[in-house]
């Protein structure tokens, strides 16, 4: 297995997205995973992977994944981060629509609410606030998605939209597993154009083992999925017809794993679905 340092690297390479408070702000990623590090991770995956056709085939019913929301707020108001149950329910609905073709059903299993202005304002990658928050609140095992909604107003998380861990990170750092996201990016939130719920769709994509569509650019190792056309860099807005690489296919701007506006995102490819099924079977014990 990997060292704890490697798993920490993968956690640090989580998908970190940019501030939505200015509606012209772009999603930018703070991932630091290099082609070399990705190759190491993929070697481990190939040596240990469970292929989709090895799954139990009792039925074609979707695999259910429990989602545990941890609503962190600075006070009891919506503006202060106290996301109402109605928006959490809507978020799950958005997720289920996005992942229907992948054989995954997300189930809202629990909701915790914590008033902690330090966590709300300062939780971010590798921060002491994140460590304390996850240590205190995380529940379940590798197969359970824990989602923490925060404000990202200062500290190492200042201006972020969200970030996630990868499945292969779990064994080395189980308490860190999960997604941290901006509270106002849920459906009906104020983080336009990122307020239709696709931030969590994107971050959950990393949680089930997908890289960005632009991983490696035109000549790198890519996202390990053959049917997502190579893309030189992340796309923003909804630039129909954008084509940044000479290889076949226009940029996958509608893919949930790019950086376009929520209204532009609407698909995973068949190859991504095959990959995520293998990833969650191998590292999370989930058959889909």
From TrEMBL:
Q: Which UniProt keywords apply?
A: Disulfide bond, Hydrolase, Metal-binding, Metalloprotease, Protease, Signal, Zinc
Residue ranges of the TM segments? none
Q: Which positions carry the signal peptide feature in this UniProt record?
A: 1-18
Q: Name one Pfam family in it.
A: Peptidase_M43
Q: Which residues form a coiled coil?
A: none
Q: Which InterPro entries does the annotation name?
A: MetalloPept_cat_dom_sf (IPR024079), Peptidase_M43 (IPR008754)
Q: Where is the Peptidase M43 pregnancy-associated plasma-A domain?
A: 162-280
Q: Name one GO biological process term.
A: proteolysis
Which GO MF term does the entry hold, naming one? metallopeptidase activity
Family, per entry: Belongs to the peptidase M43B family.
PANTHER family per the UniProt record, alphabetical: METALLOPROTEASE MEP1 (AFU_ORTHOLOGUE AFUA_1G07730)-RELATED (PTHR47466:SF1), PTHR47466
Q: How is this protein named in the record?
A: Metalloprotease
Species this protein is from: Crucibulum laeve
């Amino acid at each position: 297995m990997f060292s704890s340092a490697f798993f920490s690297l993968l956690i640090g390479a989580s998908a970190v997205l940019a501030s939505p408070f200015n509606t012209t702000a772009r999603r930018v990623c703070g991932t630091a995973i290099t082609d070399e590090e990705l190759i190491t991770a993929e070697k481990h995956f190939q040596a240990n992977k469970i292929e989709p056709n090895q799954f139990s085939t009792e039925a074609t019913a979707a695999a259910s994944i429990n989602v545990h929301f941890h609503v962190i707020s600075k006070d009891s108001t919506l503006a202060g981060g106290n996301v109402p149950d109605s928006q959490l329910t809507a978020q799950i609905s958005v997720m289920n629509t996005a992942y229907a073709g992948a054989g995954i059903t997300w189930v809202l299993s629990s909701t915790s609410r914590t008033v902690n202005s330090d966590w709300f304002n300062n939780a971010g990658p590798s921060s002491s606030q994140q460590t304390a928050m996850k240590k205190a609140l995380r529940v379940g095992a590798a197969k359970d998605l824990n989602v923490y909604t925060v404000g990202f107003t200062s500290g190492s998380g200042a201006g972020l939209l969200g970030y996630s861990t990868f499945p292969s990170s779990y064994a080395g750092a189980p308490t860190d597993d999960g997604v941290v996201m901006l509270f106002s990016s849920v459906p009906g939130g104020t983080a336009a154009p990122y307020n239709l719920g696709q931030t969590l769709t994107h971050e959950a994509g990393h949680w089930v083992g997908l890289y960005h569509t632009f991983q490696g650019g035109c000549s790198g190792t890519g996202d390990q999925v053959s049917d997502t056309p190579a893309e030189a860099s992340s796309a923003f807005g909804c630039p129909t017809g954008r084509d940044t690489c000479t290889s076949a296919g226009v940029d996958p701007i509608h893919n949930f794993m790019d950086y376009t506006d929520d209204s532009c995102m609407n698909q995973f490819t068949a190859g991504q679905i095959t990959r995520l099924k293998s990833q969650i079977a191998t590292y999370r014990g989930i058959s889909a």
